[in-house]
Amino acid sequence: MQFPQLPLTNITSKSPQRCASQTSPQRCAKIRYIEHLAWSIWLLLCLMPPATAQMMPPGDNNSGSQETEVTPEETNINVTPEGVENNPLDRFTVERFEFEGNTAFSAERLSQEIAEFTNIPITFAELLQAEAKISKLYTDNGYVNSGAAIPAQTISNGTVKVQVIEGGLEDIKVFVNGRLSSNYIRSRLSRGTRAPLNQNRLLEAMQLLVLDPRIENISGELSAGARPERSLLEVRVEEADSFTTELFADNGRSPSVGSVRRGVRISHDNLLGVGDSLSASYTNTEGSNAYDFSYTLPVNGRNGAVSLSGGTTKTEVIEPPFDRVDILGDSVYYELSLRQPVIETPTRSLTLGLAAARQQSKTSLLGVDFPLSPGSDEDGETRVSALRFFQEWTSRTATSVFAARSQFSLGTGWFDATVNSQPPDGRFFSWRGQAQYVRRLPINSLLVVRTDAQFAPRTLVPLEQFGLGGFRSVRGYRQDTLLTDNGILTSAEWRVPVLQLGDSSAPPGRGGAVQGLVQLVPFIDFGIAWNSGTTPDPESNKLLGAGLGLQMSWGDLLDARIEWGVPLIDVESSDRTWQENGIYFSVNFRPF
User: Fold this and answer.
1) Rounded-to-integer distance, Cα 207 and Cα 280, Å
2) Spatial distance between the Cα atoms of 256 and 258, rounded to a whole number of angstroms
3) Residues 6+ positions from 21 with CB-CB distance below 8 Å
4) Staple partner for 435: which of 288, 404, 419, 464, CB 3.0–4.6 Å?
5) Residues 127, 56: contact at Cβ < 8 Å?
């Protein structure tokens, strides 16, 4: 071990000369006292333990003397890196950084962020800059309570260890004004609260809850926890009105059983307080009565759900001249489905689902069971057991919304499904695709474009066929003018506001100010249909209609629409009903 080399010769040579030059004994005594004090300080320095390597060198201590040198006897690294001759105690070289505790970013990404501090002589202040850059990378990407720290350490082989501290949530407190379970909120926030905590991800989870129809309003506050890397989240939720009653009427049914349909629907979006929904409806026409229900139960915090739905319909043909032969029909359906969003953000979503469906229908003539539809057995009964795999996609921008649905259906022979020697029967395969695009145009108008298509390689039973013409199809024609195995429908309409009532700055809805809107709706529809297998196509398999509609909405309370469509391709049809004269209407009234 080498001690600092002090200029001892100068110190000992100056004292006698200085005493000799002085005549005062008191002066000489003072000089000797200073000499003894200097020797005592020097002896104390010599007895101190040897220096060891530090994570960082001491600060600038340049005295200007070239004779002073500190050389530790044993060190783990060379504090004076090769190539740094000036101020050896001020600079050192880091060959690489080693990261611990990082999961949000890879070690390669972090090394890239501070690559400028490697393989060059740096100061302790620059080392702190590297630490700050890692922390800034985290905060800039939304990791608000994460950062980096360089702990005290012995530097070996030019490697500096960086401890990354990724923060999380200490607790989530949820306060709900209503019956909705706090676990429902907490489970849906989990996608945005997993460690490390990311503010952007948390905001996205909150925005998805804003879109939930069960929630009227939601707010959240993030505060500091017991430790710097832990935070507290407090969320307050106001539940929306979950109970809805709807009265509705339209002329969208086939004239054979009565085109004018009226009904009532009751639904609850939070029946048991866990976000489950129940809906039941009754509809009838002059020749039909239908009952439908559905129940949906959430199964996870990513909006996965199981649904059970079903319904029954009884019909009687009332259209002359067939009303004289007492044609009756009974049909029933059940469906169990599982749907799971796999991508879900405020601007886009992709949902996959699988359903098992059962349908069966039966017809009779003059009170006797009789096969009146293709594929039915000798008792007039058709049974279908099908598996359906569906995919749904939605994307939103500030000015547009695009939604699409695809469904593959496979008919099986399970559970006594109808099986014939020749199609059609309960065994089939088909694909159905639907899409709609809505875009906001100048003067607050909307362009709505939609399409619907079905393709099947073999003949289908009527329960699975594609209907074309009428209400919400090609307007200007009667309902289901064409019923075939395959078909394509395209429609476009332009909704132009002509009158606005109420406070335009207030949000519409039963909970806020009522706002009325009247729109003029020019439209054009086109469809083409054809059959598969040996079944001949309709004589006229194309429909084209155009017309004008008037649509009115009054908040969430009322929606009403009337349309007049003109058929541009002639097909054989009577003019007995409004529908067959190209006039369609619909009214939806939600009193509470």
Assistant:
1) 30
2) 6
3) none
4) 404
5) yes
Residue in 483, 471, 491, 465 with CA at minimum distance from that of residue 544:
491
Euclidean distance between CA atoms 494 and 163, whole angstroms: 59
Token representation of residue 114: 């501070």
Q: Report the predicted TM-score, pTM, of the whole model to 2 decimal places.
A: 0.79
Residue 415 φ/ψ region, left for φ over 0, alpha for ψ in the -120 to 50 degree band, beta for the rest: left
Domain positions in the chain: 8-47, 168-239, 465-592
Helix residue ranges, H only, 63-123: 107-113
Q: Are 492 and 448 within 8 A, CB to CB? A: yes
Q: How many other β-carbons are positioned within 10 Å of the β-carbon of residue 442? A: 5
The single-letter code of the amino acid at 575 is D
Q: Which of 68, 326, 348 is nearest to 211 (CA)?
A: 348
Tell which residue, 451, 488, 492, 497, has the closest CA to residue 466: 488
* Amino acid at position 438, single letter: V
Mean pLDDT of the chain: 86
Q: From 3.40.980.10, 3.10.20.310, 3.30.70.3270, 3.30.70.100, which CATH number describes the 168-239 domain?
A: 3.10.20.310
Distances (CA, A) of 43 to 1, 4, 66, 248: 15, 11, 22, 103
Contact assessment for residue 474 and residue 524, using Cβ atoms and an 8 Å cutoff: no
Min mean pLDDT across 436-440, 565-569, 570-574 is at 570-574
Indicate the pairing of strand 327-344 with strand 486-502.
Answer: unpaired
Reading the block at residue 427, the tokens are 């065994």
> Residue 374: enclosing H or E segment and its boundaries?
none
Give the C-alpha separation, 461 to 372, whole Å.
Answer: 12
Angle between helices 8-20 and 25-47 (to 10 degrees): 170
Residues contacting residue 442 through CB under 8 Å, at least 6 positions apart: none
Structure tokens given for 258:
């009565």
Report the C-alpha gap between 491 and 189 in whole angstroms.
39
Backbone angles phi, psi at 212, to 5 degrees: -70, 125
Residue 55 pLDDT greater than 70, yes or no: no
Q: What is the mean pLDDT of residues 164-169?
A: 94
**How far is residue 54's CA from residue 77's CA, in Å, rounded to a whole number?**
9
The CA distance from 161 to 575, in Å, is 86
Instruction: Tokens for 341, please give them.
Output: 């969003």
Q: How many CA atoms lie within 13 A of 8 on its CB side?
A: 7
Chain centroid to CA 476 = 39
Residues paired with residue 522 on neighbouring β-strands, in sequence order: 548
CB of 552 closer than 8 Å to CB of 500: no
Place of tokens 């002896």: 43
Kind of pairing between the strands at 168-177 and 230-239: parallel
